[in-house]
Specification:
Elements: H1 2-14, E1 47-51, H2 52-58, H3 63-67, E2 73-78, E3 82-87, E4 95-99, E5 102-103, E6 125-129, E7 144-149, E8 160-170, E9 175-186, E10 190-201, E11 205-209, H4 213-218, E12 229-231, E13 237-250, E14 253-267, E15 275-290, E16 296-313, E17 319-336, E18 344-360, E19 367-382, E20 385-400, E21 403-404, E22 408-409, E23 426-427, E24 430-431, E25 434-450, E26 455-466, H5 470-474, E27 476-479, E28 484-487, E29 495-507, E30 511-537, E31 546-570, E32 575-588, E33 601-610, E34 613-622, E35 638-648, E36 655-662, E37 686-694
Parallel strand pairs: 4-7, 28-31
Antiparallel strand pairs: 1-6, 2-3, 4-5, 6-7, 8-9, 8-37, 9-10, 10-13, 11-12, 13-14, 14-15, 15-16, 16-17, 17-18, 18-19, 19-20, 20-25, 21-24, 22-23, 25-26, 26-29, 27-28, 29-30, 30-31, 31-32, 32-33, 33-34, 34-35, 35-36, 36-37
């Protein structure tokens, strides 16, 4: 390790021989998830923005992998192709994932094997929002909001032709990835947009056996190489997509239409030859008008329609399960000064969706969903202290069809001797049509106080309520892809929590430091928990049944607490130093730990920049996780070393070459947040090279 570290530092300091940079000018990055138009230091909540070279260095095969390593965010991975972000130990329905301010419609919240229906190859900017501003994007987003920006509908005119492209090769999955975008301004008021991308990766190279020794020791059904050795079986990925958009810019506003399509075909590491086939199409319309009246400075309308299809394929190509979700949604928003001299936002959200599982074993009832919400986000001043207050009311209605579950058999059986012939009892439950209605309220208040010249404090208090999601209510049966039996509950109550979230910042000309403690108390937490029981199920084409763990969705009292810390220091000779860390604990207040909670992490990095060359070497240590939930296994620690290099060609400054190295120490990496952490290893040592440019 010492030799490798020395070589990398030498590369950082000696690759380019040029004059020092005497001054660097930074352009202000607009925050699109900010209807009040405030700068980042005026918003009473932690906001993180990634764009440009920073985002380029982060890009990976999934959204969770892209954001993994951001303080407070980890990756719930399913092999290499699927990665769902986990914020402060919370995932799924407690996080809102948006595309250009509108929620992405998919089934990723239903299970860890379902990919988020977006690819970051075409992304221009990613924003992480917490605190009062997050309330305008949905109730119950206790973890936060992730907004992915691609500018397919322009809000301003840009003359002529602009575009960019990106081509890369390599990585632990031997990936080839291509992306481009093209924008054209015509006649002073029309903007046209086109982007496309394609990703093709092979089976993932891993540093050893896929299955952990702990799992082998606890369950004699597993061998270390069950899902692969040195190469992870069925972990390939082929995806592609495109979007087109047209915008009309007029005096005091704009309007636009866009279509986007996304397709991905990825393997299931738990079943050799098994595949997932995801297709998503979305249509969007936006209209914005400024200066409506003396009290209303802006009105915005957003409408969208999505058509989503997710198939789980057997090795022979037969469809084992299919999920279809179609629906429309909309947002009407006014920026106003009705209640105070400061700007405020009044908005309405509405939508309806139809979900069906048309093929495969009984798992979830077909259902229809309707929602309507209104929200307020207001700024007030108490003397010289600005206070931001947000309120949201959500109405959700669910209607489910008749449904008969299949939970398997009480004893092991075979293809020749069925459940009853083996003296067992088939477990099934019949449900009639069900109507469920939920009204929930969310309230948040935040403020920023300048303590002195260097210190600043942000404080947020919030009360959150979340209606159960349709999968938490209506799932009841065998989920083949995850090899589990999941039992939702039609008797679930709303999820309710109270949070205190603070951030303390210290800065001067060369140093920035922040620490962000938080505490969330759930009087009612909706958890999918391992019951400790099993049922037997026979997969099609197999000879013997398999004992599957039964997971039940229930309301429990819980608490989450922790902190993030981060600091940046400018060093002489164009060097910089970064340190960071995060810590989270989650407890069932009835006793014990909650499952899949991230381990403690610390990280540090050294960066170097000189003329058109920039680079960084980063180390992240993930500690072992011993505070485990019931029926969980401990997870070992690891250290991840990353290297990034970027070089703009001096003869053509619009072209940039880059190199990214990951897991340079070739360590076994298992993240505790993943459902597959004991069955699947993450990628081994790898390098990725690419070229990107703009015109």
């Amino acid at each position: 390790m010492r030799t490798l570290l020395s070589v990398c530092i030498l590369l950082l300091s000696s690759i380019v021989n040029a004059e020092d940079i005497s001054k660097m000018e930074l352009n202000e990055i607009p925050i699109t998830a900010n209807p009040l138009g405030l700068s980042s230091d005026e918003i009473a909540n932690p906001v993180q923005i990634f764009s440009g070279t920073d985002l380029q260095n982060m890009k990976d095969s999934s959204l969770g992998a892209v954001l993994d390593g951001v303080p407070g965010i980890t990756n719930n991975s399913w092999g290499d192709s699927v990665g769902q972000p986990v914020i402060r130990g919370m995932d799924s329905n407690r996080i809102k994932i948006l595309n250009n301010g509108m929620e992405i419609k998919d089934v990723s919240n239903m299970s860890g094997d379902h990919a988020v229906a977006i690819d970051t190859l075409s992304t221009e900017q990613i924003e992480i929002i917490r605190g009062p501003a997050s309330i305008i994007y949905g109730g119950g987003a206790v973890g936060g909001v992730i907004n992915i920006i691609d500018h397919r509908i322009h809000n301003e005119y840009l003359d002529g032709v602009i575009g960019k492209y990106d081509q890369s090769f390599g990585g632990a999955n031997n990936e080839s990835a291509t992306g481009f975008s093209f924008d054209y301004g015509h006649n002073d008021n029309l903007m046209f947009h086109l982007d496309a991308y394609k990703r093709d990766s092979k089976n993932l190279n891993i540093p050893g056996f896929s299955v952990s020794q702990r799992l082998v020791d606890s369950d004699d059904e597993f061998t270390r190489d069950k899902y692969g050795k040195d190469t992870l079986q069925s972990s390939d990925n082929e995806s592609g997509g495109a979007s087109i958009g047209v915008s009309h810019i007029f005096d005091g506003g704009y309007t636009g239409l866009a279509f986007s399509g996304h397709r991905v075909d990825y393997g299931n590491p738990l079943e050799a030859g098994g595949k997932f086939d995801l297709n998503s199409n979305r249509y969007d319309y936006v209209f914005e008008k400024n200066k409506i009246s003396s009290f209303i400075s802006k009105m915005k309308i957003k409408l969208g329609y999505s058509d989503y299809d997710h198939k789980e394929l057997e090795p022979d190509g037969a469809v084992g399960a299919e999920y279809v979700d179609k629906g429309s949604d909309g947002k009407l928003e006014f920026v106003h000064s009705l209640f105070s001299k400061s700007p405020g936002v009044l908005g309405f959200d509405f939508g309806r969706s139809n979900f069906s599982k048309s093929q495969g074993d009984p798992y979830i009832a077909n259902n229809q969903r309707k929602n309507f919400s209104f929200y307020l986000l207001e700024d007030y001043f108490l003397y010289d202290q600005k206070i931001t207050i947000g309120f949201r009311h959500d109405f959700n209605r669910y209607r489910s069809n008749d449904f008969t579950s299949d939970d398997g058999c009480t004893v092991a059986y075979t293809s020749t001797d069925d459940c009853e012939a083996s003296s067992g009892t088939e477990q099934s439950t019949t449900f009639g049509k069900t109507n469920k209605t939920f009204n929930s309220n969310n309230l948040t208040i935040g403020t920023i106080t300048k303590l002195n010249k260097q210190w600043e404090m942000a404080l947020n208090l919030s009360h959150s309520e979340r209606a159960p999601a349709h999968n938490e209510l209506y799932s009841y049966g065998h989920h083949h892809a995850t090899e589990t039996i999941e039992q939702g509950s039609r008797d679930l109550k709303k999820e309710r929590s109270n949070t205190i979230d603070a951030q303390f910042k210290w800065s001067n000309q060369k140093t920035n430091f922040s620490i962000s403690p938080y505490y969330t108390d759930f009087s009612s937490y909706i958890g999918l928990l391992n019951s400790g029981t099993t049922q037997n199920h026979l997969h099609e084409g197999e000879e013997e049944s398999e004992a599957l763990a039964v997971y039940k969705t229930t309301n429990i009292p819980a608490k989450f607490y922790g902190f993030e810390v981060e600091g940046d220091l400018s060093l002489p000779n164009n060097y910089g130093l970064n340190i960071w860390g995060d810590f989270v604990k989650a407890k069932n207040k009835d006793g014990g730990n909650l499952p899949r909670i991230p381990s403690v992490r610390i990280g540090t990095g050294i960066s170097y920049q000189r003329n058109t060359f920039s680079s960084s070497l980063d180390l992240m240590h993930v500690f072992n996780q011993t505070d485990i939930g019931p029926y969980e296994l401990k997870t070992d620690d690891y250290t991840n070393m990353k290297l990034t290099m970027n070089y703009r060609l001096p003869m053509n400054n619009s072209i940039k070459l880059y190199l990214k190295g990951d897991n340079l120490l070739d360590q076994e990496k298992r993240d505790h947040t993943s459902f597959l952490k004991d069955k699947v290893l993450m990628g081994g040592r790898s390098f990725n090279v690419g070229v990107t440019g703009d015109f």
